[in-house]
Structures are given as C-alpha cells and as structure tokens.
Amino acid sequence: MDVRIVEAVTKREKLDFCRFPMKLYAGCPYYVPPLLLDELETFNRAKNPAFETADARLFMALRGDEIVGRIAGIVSSAANEKDGVRDVRFGWFDAINDATVSRALFTAVAQWGRGRGMETMSGPHGFSLFDREGMLVEGFDRMPTFVTYYNHPYYQDLVEGYGFSKRYDFVEYRTENLDQKQFPARVSDLVDRVMARGKFRVMKFNNRREIRAMGPPVFDLLEESYMELADMVPFTRKQIQYFIPKFMPFMHKELLKVVLAEDGEVAGFMISMPSISEALRKANGRLLPFGFLHLLRALRTFDTLDFCLAGVRKKYRGKGVDLIMAREMFHSAQKLGVKYTESNPELETNVRIQSEWKHFDPIQHKRRRVYETRIAEAHIVPFRDPRPAAQTAPARETVAAR
Description:
- The chain has helices spanning 11-24, 36-42, 77-83, 99-115, 155-162, 185-198, 208-213, 215-226, 237-247, 277-283, 291-300, 321-335, 351-357; strands at 4-7, 54-63, 66-76, 87-95, 120-123, 135-138, 165-175, 201-202, 256-260, 266-274, 304-312, 340-343, 346-347, 363-374, 380-382, 397-399.
- By secondary structure, the protein is of the alpha+beta class.
- The protein is globular.
C-alpha cells in the first residue's frame, strides 16, 4: 500500500503525532515516553516562545488510515544566523522499519526546507538545548535519561540509507557504586587551594525561592558556555522565563551547585537531578490519574542521579571552578545515598569534561549521533568587488562562504 504524508495541524492530529511512538515502542522496557502535555505544548505556537525565532511543520506517514511514521521539520533563524548556515532541522523522528516510510518523511522535510531557502538538513534536533537531540547508535539495552531519545537500532540504517552522514557524536557515561567510592585526596587538596587563591565560594540553597532567583544568572552563563558550540540556539528573554518554572519542580537544593567569584559574579554552575526515567515509563505519558505520584516518589526516593548541565564563565576556565563543583556534587550525592550516576550527552571531543569522570571508573555505555545531508545547491550570490567602479571587471558569480 502506498505511503502518503499528511501534516499534523489540528489538535487531534498533533495528539496522534505525539502518541505514535508509544504505540511503536509498546512493550519495550527501555523506551521512556515524555509527558504528552509537555510535547503538545512544545508545538503550541501560542505557548512556546521558540516560535519567535523558528518555524516548524509536523509530518505523519500513513498507510491507509494507520500512522507508520512521524517527523518534525524546524527552521531556526536564530541558529542559522548564529552559525552562518541554511539548515533545516529534523526531530521527533520515529518510524516502522521500512525505508519507503522513512524516505517519504525525510523528503517531506527536505522539500519544505528547500522552499524556505535551506541547503542542508540535520538532526535529530529540537528547537533549543532543552529539546532532545541525537540518535542513539550504541547502548540499545539501556534506559535513557529523561531528556534523551530512545530509538530502535534499525533507525541508523534508515537515516544512512537516505544519504545522511555523521556530523558529530555525543557519548554518555555511567558510574556505579558511587556510595563506595572516595573523592581523590589529591584533587580535593587542589580544590582547597583553588578556592583560597581565587576566593571562590559555593552557594547554599534553603528553598525553591532561592533556587528560582538564580534562574536568570544561570541561564545567562548557560548561554555563554554553550552558544559557542554549533547548532546551539540563542535564548530570548521569553524563553528563559518559560524554562525556569518548567524545570523548577525537578530541582533539588542539594543538586544545584553555583560557584561565586569574589565580587559575587556567577563563575560556574552544575545541575543534577534525580533520575525520573522509570517514573515516566510507569506514567506512560500522563500525569493523571497516577503519573504524578510516580514522579513525586522518584524525586523523593532515588539512587540514580542524572548529570544535566554545567558551565564555567570563560574568564574563569582553567582555574579549577569545574573541580570545585565536581567535589561539591560528589559529596551531596553520597549524602543523598546515590549509587549510580548518568551523564547526559557530551560531545565526544569534549575531553575536559570526560577527564573529570575518570576518577570514578566511568563506563561509556551510550553514543548518539547528529546526522547531516545536503538538500540543495549552495546559495549563489553576486560577487561584489570593493574597488572603485572604474577598476572593476565585469560582474561574476561565486559561492557564498558558509
């Protein structure tokens, strides 16, 4: 039966779009569904401020009346302007193991992207740093953290069969028996010297109000730390105001580490959260009637910690701020009875952050890949010679620098 592509526009169609992977992964012990309300809000132009600097389309592949695949296409003008590219992103890609289906989905995004003047397609991406990114290519027997994708092994064949190739990889690490380990004494001594020499101090939080007050300065530093990386999208003020309350319920006062310089400036931050993957799996996408109980229980009683985000202000890099936060987080984790830790995706080239894991016998247990392919010829623009008109040769064309 032929595959046809339809755009999800109505509320019902968007709900079908969001529910499809729950059907595709039914019975899979590793799949962690997101909350349906959060997914629907992500695609709500009236609620998600990402649409101020981006546009998106949601496509579904149908055979007859049955949904057999889905994909989102995103054009982020903020990201493209920052990186100097013409790239359409794909995300939220899920499909049965059928190249005809995946080809139709990728083609739908490519055609839409070309219509917007895009030259390349890459993904999986979302609108911003807080959306899921990267396709799982190693670690299919592991449950993901709640901010990452799980996907079937055959996805790699579908993507590469269309013509995508690797743009970059993320790696993820797991430590076990953290409660039986000790923070290296020589590193701890170094941290003491760093704090004394740099006159750094670590903030202590007593309640959520104090945590919330740190939201804006932490987001400012987050942007400085991550925006130098390709594909990261600059935040607007509305996005910062949008994300702070969304993540507040998951914050634990012992698991937010903020290092202040002598003058009170935020020099670095590190955020970890109790793992809620199993709770989300039990909730199956819904807070009601019992989903919120699973989440509350996971936030109160846990033995696994997800390392989410960390950043150091440029002028303090190489001065040991990262080691201060690592020691503080290690001691807090032990105090809370944590036995296991999971890193979230780290660029495989980020040797500095990976070197900090080496003290705790890490296992590199997952790998994720961001793919890219060309969908149009390079943009042609008229050549403009800066010399006075009398000295110029006849106009010619050249490929714009990218």
